[in-house]
Amino acid sequence: MRNLILFFIRFNALFLFLLLEIIALFLLVQREPQKEIFLHSSNIVSGSILKVYDGVVQYTNLRKVNANMAEEIAWYKNRDTTSFSRMQSGNFNNDSTLNLRFEFIPAHVINNSTSGNNNYLTLDKGTAHGVVENTGVVGGTGIVGIVRKASSNYAAVMSVLHREIKISALLKRNNYFGSLVWKDNHPRIMDLDAIPKHVEVEKGDSVVTSGFSTFFPPGQMIGIVDTAWVDPGENFYTIKVELSCDLGNVQFAYVVKHQLREEQKDLEEEVGYE
Amino acid sequence: MNNSPYLRNIIRFVGFVLLQVLILKNIEIYPPYIHLLIYPLFIILMPFGMPIWGTLFLAFFLGISVDVFYDSLGLHAAASVLTAYARSKLLLLMEPRGGYDPNLFPGKNTMGLGWFIQFAAIVMGIHMLFYFFLEAFLFAEILTVILKSILSFFFSMILIVIHQYLAYPRPRKK
What we know:
Helix content of chain B: 55-70%
Structural class of chain A: alpha+beta
Order of helices and strands of chain A: HHHHHEEEEEEEEEEEEH
Radius of gyration of chain B: 16 Å
Strand content of chain B: under 5%
Distance between the termini of chain A: 56 Å
Low-confidence stretches of chain A: none
Oligomer: heterodimer
Order of helices and strands of chain B: HHHHHHH
Largest sheet of chain A: 6 strands, antiparallel, barrel
């Protein structure tokens, strides 16, 4: 017994080192959300520090923000019904009982990264503003990520530049769908997988969200095809998509709340979708 | 400036964490192989007389503080704890004749520039390699890990040497 105690005293630094290392690694690999919330960047301390800091540096970015806002306004103007002349159609049906499916909640990006393997953003809107977990986030010109956690005033968003992201996307030209993943470390290039090789794909084709996954409304712009090729012996294309939204300077974003998400999820689970 | 080692280390801790998460985190260079890390300098600069358990605990909290802002809970903490342990072993290996003065801390003025750079380089090298390995978590990306480590190491070392000249401009008279 005495020898054992002497042994522990002699190596106590080593044991403490191993203990702390194991705690750190455990924190790193465990993914249980409840435990993580406490130390997440959506927590109140780091959230407020980032907000103050952001308030200071915001002024230096105003020119860029204005340019982005103008671009965004133009984007919406182009899609406004008043921008189109309506063609007379036989069974046009004006329905005033349309269901609101998607609600956009504007938020300010107060923390961001694009250089890691797994990138996150923090938004300054939380559950108090109607943000819920597992909702999509779009920027003015393209998709940004998925809300992973929301505290009452902040939301932590998994960026599309994340190794585990998988977004259902389709080629606008012919409606073939695949999944969008981030493989290269380039902050503007993502890969569109699972497009079969008989499909015609050209540089410049638009890639938009499919709307299958309930995170994003259908038809949200993602980017354009940069390069596409079929490796010998493969049945699927390798497609590099250039994102239309530059994650490196996104300042404002909209949380997309799908009003009927639960209903769709429940139904799909009942039938046993993956 | 002030001679209280407690106050000095508290200011350093807060200063390095804020510098890391508010400024260096936002410097993003393409290709994204360069991560400027300054916070391990806090571990390097802890006093010689500090007990090992103290350095381990401080390193753990330093890592956790940085992790909170990086949304990478445990990643920087694991790297920092390993770095602190390696540092204590390295101090024994690099001990000069006559030992260390427990009231001093490593620096160019206390131990000489050559000794300090050698010491800081080994500690930072260990930190960088372990950090990028943990971040990738895959041995398939070993070339990227090594490339990232080398580039980040080089630029972070420049920061550390600049810090030495800015913070301690003149050699202290004994």
